[in-house]
Amino acid sequence: MSADQLSTTNYQLFSDYHTHPQGHRVQRYTSGLLQPWIDSATKFGLTDIAFTDHDRYHAGVDFDEIDRLRERNPQLRVRAGIELDNDPIHSEAGRKWVEKHWAKLDFVLGSVHFLSRADQMFDSVPAGAEQFEGHDVDAIYADYFRRVREMAATGLVDCLAHLDLVKIHGHRPRSEIGPIVNETLDFIRARDLAIELSTAGWRKPVNELYPGDRIIELAIEKGIPFTIASDAHSQVQLGDSYPRLAQKMAAYGIRRVGIYDKHQRVLRNVCVESVL
Ligand SMILES: [Zn+2]
Ligand SMILES: [Zn+2]
Predict the structure, then answer these.
(1) Residue 189 · residue 225 · CB < 8 Å
(2) Which ligand is nearest to the CA of 231?
């Protein structure tokens, strides 16, 4: 066994802070909908998960049902969350819902899924790729990260999701990513927000973790904390590719991840010291 393999065996990635129990439609929170997620999380060795359905499905979220779920499953921390989008049609209502329920929410993800077209998420696969065809990719990147800063500036989010989602279909800027994201990372740091390490990118055409290596390096330099997440749309995706994520974290020396209780972040160690 190599030194690298040995070090990753010491990682215990116990949290998943981006999950979608409702999937892609409104489904009222019930024990029948949520308990399978707890059972699956337990099976995969997770002890702290956040439900972060899209804000356009906020009607399905039931805080009392989450409380009952917590009572039935004391072995696992369940965080009430939402993924707040920049959806030009639905997210105004989403922002109001987040404001109204802020005190009940543990964790809010901020996401940019819309560019100039209001009728299509650019990250729909494969259809969203057409938004890039014939356009200046550098300009799209600049526009995307401007929208990320807008989301960070709402004051309604704890963490930015899939920070470089704009790469999803494999379009890359002509120049280095560092100068393109620097301002956005400084903005995130100044507001004391976190970013997520999301394994969802490995399931997409780009086949790369969100965010990419250079952004991870810059985030570490700037002292931006990370959450870890699968963006599961089914309970079987919870903790997806976590062994591979542990390798990446070991390579960068990332030993702590953020967990949230009523928007208060605590950094917890995920690296168990080896006795070998
Ligand atoms: Zn998203
Ligand atoms: Zn999501």
Answers:
(1) no
(2) 2
CA of 182 to the centre of ligand 2 (A): 24
Of the ligands numbered here, which is closest to the C-alpha atom of 210?
1
What is the DSSP track for 146-194?
Answer: HHHHHHHHTS--SEESSTTGGGTTS---SS-HHHHHHHHHHHHHHTT-E
* 1 — pLDDT class (breaks 50, 70, 90): very low
Residues with CB under 5 A from ligand 2 (ion): 83, 231
pLDDT digits (tens, 9 = 90+) for 153-168: 999 999 999 999 999 9
3-state secondary structure of 49: strand
For residues 226 and 216, give the distance between their C-alpha atoms in angstroms, rounded to a whole number.
9
Contact (CB, 8 A) for 74 and 104: no
273 Cα–ligand 2 center, Å: 32
Q: Which helix (H) or strand (E) holds 2?
A: none
Question: Separation of 4 CA from ligand 2 center, angstroms?
Answer: 31
This prediction's pTM: 0.95
Model confidence over 225-265: pLDDT tens digits?
Answer: 999 999 999 999 999 999 999 999 999 999 999 999 999 99
CA of 174 to the centre of ligand 2 (A): 28
The CA distance from 120 to 205, in Å, is: 18
Distances (CA, A) of 176 to 185, 212, 215, 219, 258: 15, 12, 11, 15, 28
- Kindly identify the ligand whose nearest atom is closest to the C-alpha of 20: 2
**CA distances to 25, 128, 196, 237 from 125, in Å:** 17, 6, 21, 18
Nearest CA among 66, 62, 53, 63 for reference residue 25: 53
Ligand nearest the Cα of residue 123 is: 1
